Amino acid sequence: MRFLPKLELKFRRWKKLKKSPLLRKLDIICESARKRTFQQTPDADYVKRLQTEYGENSGKELSYKRREQFMYNGSFHEAVGAILLTAQWFAMMPVRGVTAKHPSSLSFSWRNVRTCCCLLFIVSMLINLSLTIYKVLNGSITFNNVRPLIFKSCICLVCGTALNLARKWPELMMHWDEIEQDLPQYRTQREKQRMAHSIKMVMFVGMMLSFAEHLLSMISAINYASYCNKTDDPIRNFFLLTNDEIFYIFDYSTPLALWGKLQNVYSTFIWNYMDILVMIVSIGLASKFRQLNDNLLKFKGMHMAPSYWSERRVQYRNICTLCGNMDNAISLITMVSFSNNLYFICVQLLRSLNTMPSVAHSVYFYFSLIYLIGRTLAVSLYAASVHDESRLSLRYLRCVPKDSWCPEVKRFAEEISSDMVALSGMKFFHLTRKLVLSVAGTIVTYELVLIQFHEDQDLWDCDQSSYS
Questions:
Q1: Which tens digits make up the pLDDT trace of 433-448?
Q2: CA-based nearest residue to 76, from 314, 288, 373
Q3: Model confidence pTM above 0.85
């Protein structure tokens, strides 16, 4: 009911504005007389009522502080704070101070509870991976049956890389903040919140689609478990199906079933988060180039002093250095992301040749395939935007008037033309728009080879290693 006094206050102000100017002046004179009278004989209750009614200093300070909480400073550290905090709930990026206003509050410690939880999950995942390896080696090794092995190996690798990234994160964010302070500053609040809004939308849409995919996979598994009813308990059938690598060795137990399901939920989040991490870093780097390009656009075609071009060239070089440092930090995650997506797209396209056993299975399968292709395309385009924005500065340099052309402009243009500024996958490939066509061509080539050896399988076969 806290909103009632504020509503009453607004209603009174509206009634005052409805009065004529003469009546409002008379009310002001009468009220000032009442205040002078009570100042001479102060009444604590009336003073408190006046403060509530007219909203004096304490209320103004409170509203100002609340307003400050929704203000952005335009920094990358502030934009990714909530994203990293969400990742810590799933045993990733155990860095303290991610929601602080300044990156100087960031710290990493091996004795931190978050780090211990991350290490515990990695150990648990390695045990699960060992059980999967044992099951695959004792069965038939096919292109389809090694999917769980590839999936869990990627999760373990990403978790280890993310832990190493968390150790370097405070230093990287301090370097990022220094470069941001040197760039031309944002002038409006909309410009400051643009990067944060893009990052949060990518995270929200990615997680919602991931949640929908996981929910459809559970529905498909429940439908499959009801068909392959090994026992009379449907819940037990579900866990026996989804955690087959655990109960291939051990007897069924509820703690092991819950452990396997928890591992599956965490692995699904990490599998999607590694793509989201590449996208948000790409958005951050591209926004810094865009911040510089907006300033160049403002003075496009104008006569500028050589010192202006020298300053912009140094800022451009600093962003390129930052891009190289971030690429060294996440290049292994980028490599795993693209190779993992490439493999699973090939597997899903190959399995699309089979006849789907049920409607639930078909809905899950095609939703998963479309989501996987869309996610791979989104990672490629967001990462390619770093290269596109870095080259955009050259367009403005070509509009420099002949009278203002100087060695600094020439040097700036040569650096943009000769440097390859882009994220990469362990330096094996650079993430540009040309990569999208290369990946598409690779998928088609692999698919044509796999179709030659493909045999139609019965997806209702309860003895197969995987139900999906």
A1: 888 888 888 888 877 7
A2: 288
A3: no
